[in-house]
Amino acid sequence: MDTKARRRLPIGLQTFRELREEHCYYVDKTGFIARLLDEGKHYFLSRPRRFGKSLFLDTLKELFEGNEALFTGLYIHNRWDWTLRHPVVRLDFGAGHFGESGYVHTNAMAQLAAAGQENGVTVEHETAPERFRDLLRALHAKTGRRVVVLVDEYDKPILDALDSPDVARANRDYLRGLYSTIKSSDAHVRFTFLTGVSKFAKVSVFSGLNNLTDITLDRRYSAICGYTERDLDTVFGPELPGLDQRRIRDWYNGYNWRGEERVYNPFDILLLFDKREFGCYWFESATPRFLIDTLFQRRVSTLSLDGMLTSSELLSSFDVEAIATEALLFQTGYLTIKDVRDRNGVLRYRLGYPNREVRQSLNECLLRRLVEDATQQTANSDRLYDLMVANDFARMEALIQAFFASIPYEWYTNNAIADYEGYYASVFYSYFAASGFDVTVEDSSNRGRADMAVRFRGNVYVFEFKVVEQATEGAALAQLKQRRYADKYRAAGDPIHLIGVEFSKETRNVTAFDVERV
Predict the structure, then answer these.
(1) 436 has which bridge partners?
(2) Is residue 261, in this structure, part of any structural domain at all?
(3) CA–CA separation, 396 vs 295, rounded Å?
């Protein structure tokens, strides 16, 4: 662990100059920049919000503008020709809300005019593509150097309008025309880098800019944003005393884009070091309303989220008319890549929650939407924890019955969801996951799969769920015993509790909660 003096935490800073001049902590990402410059010209990167994309773009800006002093001691300092300075045009769609028709045009035209003024050139065309084209040509002519184009949050005008599909489509088509200018002006462009949260299909947004190199899932750039374990030990070493690194890893590590190592969300880490306590900082910084609405509309089971199998095509299947569930969850950062499987040259990705923060918070959001009583939900989570500590299964059954009774009747209308074990298992899983328990779904052994397992304070709780007619049948506990699901846990010597839970189709609630310790 590094014991050097503590520095200022760069919380909320997105400008490379301020970060360096104020002597803040900085994880050197310029090695990635050197590779990008050696290997290509036009790049695209998708990463979730608050992952350091804007800071990376600002680092590129300062580099191409030749501000050498800011790079002293960094990887690229002695590998860059500081006599070469390039004009930089940076478009940032992060400010403002683009849900209103026509605002994307107003915003883009204003940004292009401002870029011209900052560089001492005048561009007056009434369409954004023509104004953009003239700006690039004029800057090249004035400086004798080709222009660097940086676009931050390229997709926000589309994402802001997803609730209004007509506006979203209009914004998408507008941006397609704007971005196509980069390719048609290639003779005037030195380097291009576009970033955003989503990865829209090239045919929808980048059909006119089809020479972009997408590094989103390039394993060489998996850590281009975010902090690695080594970064915490070295750069942030002075902040670690007094904090349990295993807990830090459990709470905030786990993001992966096919790289050899997983990374931490910078926003979480900086706030943890500042507040010195664990919290759901990243999740609470924005409410994923569209995501929650989509999961409910599609009736996506929470059981399917942790371990979801998908392809690279589905991970990129994101457009106004068709947003794949896998793509939505992955690109927004609520799921990440757990492992990659090669099936005769076809890659398959297994997705899962990156860490405790996301697993707990997302399931809490889903439950809140289900019962619409956040106060009672919090109280129930606290009560469940106490009952698990005491192994008070009778009161646990009553608590869970009260929870299912609180789900509005309207949730069951016009569908047969109450007939399916998957629905009850999904709600059960979210109930425990939202309370912070270590939950495994469909935990497999050589005799089959238990529906759910929970490990807590040296105890193992193995659940099986059954939907029955009115009478209690005891089938759930019988299956746990018959298939000997407890065997895989015996080696550790921990107490094992088999819990068979049965639900009635008619009452839509727990009718049996049979427990046996083995």
Answers:
(1) none
(2) no
(3) 28
Rounded CA separation 127/74 (Å): 41
339-350 pLDDT, tens digit per residue, is 998 888 888 999
Q: Are 352 and 303 in contact, with CB atoms under 8 Å apart? A: no
pLDDT of residue 1 exceeding 60, the answer is no
Name residue, tokens 């870029």: 115
Residues 101, 53 share a domain: yes
**Residue 226 lies inside a defined structural domain of this protein:** no
Could you give the angle at the alpha carbon of 285 between the alpha carbons of 280 and 289, nearest 5°? 100
Q: Tell whether 324 and 376 lie within a shared domain.
A: no
What is the CATH classification number for the domain harbouring 48? 3.40.50
Q: In terms of domains, do 312 and 431 share one? A: no
C-alpha–C-alpha distance, residues 188 and 136, integer Å: 6
Strand order in the sheet with 88-92: 88-92, 147-152, 189-196, 42-46, 213-214
Sorted by sequence, the CB contacts under 8 Å of residue 367 that are 6+ apart come out as 377, 427, 430, 431, 434
pLDDT per position as a tens digit, 180-229: 999 999 999 999 999 999 987 655 777 767 789 999 999 999 999 999 99
Give the H/E segment covering residue 284: helix 281-284
Give the separation between CA 133 and CA 113, rounded to whole angstroms: 12
Based on the structure, what is the number of domains in the chain?
3
Question: 311: which residues sit within 8 A by CB, 6+ positions away?
Answer: 346, 347, 348, 349
Handedness of CA 226, 227, 228, 231 (dihedral sign): positive
Strand bridging mode 308-311 / 336-343: unpaired
Task: Write the CB contacts of 344 (distance below 8 Å, at least 6 apart in sequence).
Answer: none
Q: Do 323 and 377 belong to one domain? A: no
**Residue 156 within a domain:** yes
Distance CA 271, CA 255 (A): 18
pLDDT of residue 166 exceeding 70: yes
Task: Specify the pTM.
Answer: 0.91
Are 339 and 396 in a shared domain? Answer: no
Q: How far does CA 40 lie from the centroid of its chain?
A: 27
Question: What sections of 46-164 are H helices per DSSP?
Answer: 53-64, 103-118, 128-143, 156-159
Share of the chain above pLDDT 90, in %: 69
Taking a C-beta distance cutoff of 8 angstroms, is the pair 84, 43 a contact? no
Q: Are residues 130 and 201 in the same domain?
A: yes
Do 398 and 345 fall into the same domain?
no
What domain range is 383 assigned to? Answer: 372-517
Q: How far apart are CA 198 and CA 48, in angstroms?
A: 8
| Angle between the N-to-C axes of helices 356-371 and 374-390, in degrees from 0 to 180, rounded to the nearest 10 | 120
Structure token pair of residue 156: 């926000």
With respect to residue 193, please indicate whether it lies within any of the assigned structural domains. Answer: yes
